[in-house]
């Protein structure tokens, strides 16, 4: 099969190549909830063939409490009085560093690289001790404090596109990195909003066309697809993952949880271990022929 895959640029996240011919599969829970949870997830995703563990330690929730519209994605899973509590930054930082420690320990045990979202520029040095790649969430693609700080980092960046922004705008942010001498970044497509979504819960539609478009306009930038946040729906994740790999994506960012229905955040989209294992076999088969 012909493919839009482009092998020009490879960046390194620890020992893991992102871009080039290898598939970079980044998998793990939305949120690092406990030491046991992240160790279980790291074991399962590494055995299935993923190269990186993902896990949020700072969570930029849409609402600071359970979603008033009842959408469970914004539900932190904590009791209402806990959810309503706005946690001061010092407490957030303490909890985040503890969870990053668990994730790094689990990653070392199972031979994985670590990716996690950075929300505050002043946490870059602390987080650098634990992560191999920084994720910039969609909300922060225009956060120049963060972009400027990350341009000085020796860790690679995964820059997520906001669901309402064009590829052109995203490439503008990439140019801000380039202009500051920072070239080891990849972009992540996680869905765009359109007038009609496929069901009432669906927040976004995966923009598969971004893959060939990036190959045309920014052939040197690896493209990672996040089918979990794009679909917001477990039963769509495998099909969109297969389509992304067939279209030439360099990798996937997928939410995988030991007990998906009870995930603190995003319980509707996380895959369980056996679903993820099955998906990895399918992806590998597709990757072999493109
Ligand atoms: C995430 O990957 O956990 C996340 C919050 O992503 P996004 O910024 O795409 O919502
Ligand atoms: Mn999530």
Automatic annotation (TrEMBL):
Keywords: Transferase
Gene3D superfamilies tied to this protein: Aldolase class I
InterPro entries named in the record: Aldolase_TIM (IPR013785), Class-I_DAHP_synthase (IPR052899), DAHP1/KDSA (IPR006218)
Domain of life the protein comes from: Bacteria
Cross-referenced Pfam families: DAHP_synth_1 (PF00793)
The DAHP synthetase I/KDSA domain, residue ranges: 15-65, 96-283
Molecular function in Gene Ontology: transferase activity
Protein name, UniProt field: DAHP synthetase I/KDSA
Species of origin: Desulfatibacillum aliphaticivorans
